[in-house]
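Entry type: protein chain
Record version: 2
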Amino acid sequence: MNYIKIYNANIITPEGILKDGTLVIKNDKIAEISAGNVDVPSALEIDAGGKILSPGFIDLHVHGGGGHDFMDNTVDAFLNIARTHAQYGTTSLMPTTLSCEKTDLLDTIKTYEAADPINDAGAQFVGLHIEGPYFSMNQKGAQDPRYIRNPDADEYNEILASTAAIRRWSAAPELPGALAFAKTLKAKHILAAIAHTDAIYEDVLEAFEEGFTHATHFYSCMSGVSRRNAYRYAGVIEAAYLLDNMTVEIIADGVHLPPALLKLVYKIKGSKNTALITDAMRGAGMPEGKSILGSLTTGIEVIIEDGVAKLPDRSAFAGSVATANQLVRNMIQLADVPLSEAVEMITATPARILNINAHKGVIKKGMDADLVIFDPQIKINTTIVRGKIVFTASDAQDLPRKPKY
């Protein structure tokens, strides 16, 4: 048996913060949580030094990091992205694609299936998120317009038949064929999410009933109140607020959404229906300057500045370079969210959205030993994935700092 004992920790539990507590890991599960310092013979001991011990961060929407993108379609890229985000407290992440040709998407799926079984030194993969290509051209954002199209049943059925790795697919629900697409996803227990959309409130109501229960990067590339033929219509943003059971995700990098909107989302949707995401592209954890969104061969050039990726003409954001710990810090400092609820938004809430909350997302006996230790500034000290230490602060000097392109 392999035991790890973490003591002198302020442990975030579903019941509150247990001060000066001890947590024991047995193999890959949480075996015990108790007050004080308990004796665990032969355990590897970690003195948390009064720092915070939290469930590991779960990122529902990640494109890349550390100079790599999942659509580079190499196992090395997948593994390096997992290691990069682990240094910022992410213990589970959902590799995310961009709108592309079907052949490129099938290659990404195959690469995921090759990388997943050998990913043992970084954040765990919890399924693929297909973002696009079924989007509104008017709300394309940084998605490549060459690949945007309406749902094609022959295409998506072929893709779905090729793999069991897809756990989420983002699309615009107002497109022809989108509701049939949602029904197909729902039947396969795949989360259908609304994204890059010009839908109005009535479209969303119908789509919600067919399975579109989650809003991708809320506010970004989606409709709000609009005027059509002199009449005003509520959009996706208003629909998500009005539908109590619709969940949303936000890029809380302080750039995509200003503090006022972070506060508004928290006030209306709350911590139980709002997940924090990085939406990170390859520039996460890298210096500012030129970068590429998407694959090295077919992606588009972007520039990283002011803490965000932008299109070269600066007409739109082109993905985030945020890290998970930054999201938590921003919700506390910019949106006045209490620590426990800010953590909930990147642990228990995404676990419930993905239906993996039976074994991830909270610190409780029997749950996966996915844990992170951090200080009051949310600076990461230690990241543990399934009972294995994958990052400590002393490792930081060995992390990649130069682009791979």
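Comment: Residues 56-353 form a domain with the TIM Barrel fold (CATH 3.20.20.140).
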